[in-house]
Amino acid sequence: MRLKKGGDTSKISDKKMLRLIIFDFDGVLANSNEAHIEVVLQVLRKLGVDNISRNEITKHFGKPYKDVLKALVPDTISESELKKAAEFQLKILHSKEFISKLRLFPSVKRTLAKLRARGMKLAIATGNDEKFMNLALKQLSIEEFFDVVVTVDHVNRPKPYPDMILKILETLAIKANEAMYIGDSINDVLMAKNSKVRSAVVLTGNLSLEEAKALKPDFIIDNVCDLLHLLKNFLNSNNN
Predict the structure, then answer these.
(1) pLDDT, tens digit, 9 for 90 and up, residues 142-196
(2) Cβ pair 86, 65 in contact under 8 A
(3) d(Cα 189, Cα 13) in Å, to the nearest integer?
(4) What are the structural domains of the chain?
(5) What angle do the packed helices 163-172 and 186-194 form, to 10 degrees?
């Protein structure tokens, strides 16, 4: 497990101070970032755009699909072309072929089960759409673990705006200082900061260790399973 320089697990040891963990989906729970990138590249090629790097694509993850494409294509691409391209992208993402290939990172389900067993509320805030998440969570058999799942089509503003996290906090009647968001991208960290919740970056997604450090999240961990170590003091106090 890695903590950012100066990180201190003691500040989350009080069970009254951490009641909710909110996860991003791709690159955090599911090993699916590369698959999403390949879909975007496929859609871009369909639009005649073939000079976009993977890193450039991931900078826009968390936005609605159409907005991601709009940020990557030249101004000569019309709105109607973008709309059709986004619909094509959704068709791929909702397909049985794509959904069936989704895989969790190792021990994610075990970690979620342990967190739930200790009384922790769990939620997801993701840039994916609702239909995709319903299909994905069912495919991966993890829907039972989450109290709330908020997708990009549930809010007016996507990441890095705080809307998704704020919606979860309101739904569960939990304060910002009682929650932590786990993500893997620039927009994830910014959304957490904008909503005043603690932030943790996992290194299973879009960011290197140096890139993660530069964003100054509260914590940096290798993977979701390291949450059990990060929250050890909380879990112990919850058992007493």
Answers:
(1) 999 999 999 999 999 999 999 999 999 999 999 999 999 999 999 999 999 999 9
(2) yes
(3) 22
(4) 9-31+103-239 (3.40.50.1000), 33-100 (1.10.150)
(5) 50
The pTM of the whole model exceeds 0.85: yes
